[in-house]
Specification:
- The protein is α+β, with helices and mostly antiparallel strands.
- The chain has one domain: 50s Ribosomal Protein L17, Chain: A (Alpha-Beta Complex).
- α1 crosses α2 and α2 runs antiparallel to α3.
- The chain is globular, with a radius of gyration of 15 Å.
């Protein structure tokens, strides 16, 4: 039975590998604003990333250090604090959207796209 098991294993054997994968996926999502992955990994990434965006909205030094504990790249954290957090200043939560895309051909794994909610149009405005 699965009672009181809050962590998904995601096909990985060690906790450190899962933590590294979540940090890498969060960095990719912050950089590209949307990524495609399995549905279970997308749901776990949402649990990992939403508190980090809430920290970034606070914007103080302690919040930055808390985020740097999870994501080790300073330029990614800078992007999170200076580009993403101001967009979500009025939003109380729900910064990500998960959209089911179907099933992968080779292993029939359920594939989803996770994206930052209000960030897709912001990139197009910045490029123009």
């Amino acid at each position: 039975m699965r009672h009181r098991k809050s962590i998904r294993k995601l096909g990985l054997s060690s906790r450190s590998h899962r933590k590294a994968m979540m940090a890498n996926m969060a960095s990719s999502l912050i950089t590209h604003k949307k990524i495609k992955t399995t549905h279970a990994r997308a749901k776990e990434l949402r649990r990992f990333l939403e508190p980090l965006i809430t920290f970034a909205k606070r914007g103080d030094l302690h919040a930055r250090r808390q985020v740097l504990r999870k994501i080790k790249h300073k330029d990614i954290v800078h992007t999170l604090f200076h580009e993403i957090a101001p967009v979500y200043s009025d939003r109380p939560g729900g910064y990500t959207r998960i959209t089911k895309l179907g099933f992968r051909d080779n292993d029939r794994a359920e594939v989803s796209q996770i994206e930052l909610v209000d960030m897709i149009g912001v990139d197009a405005e910045n490029e123009e």
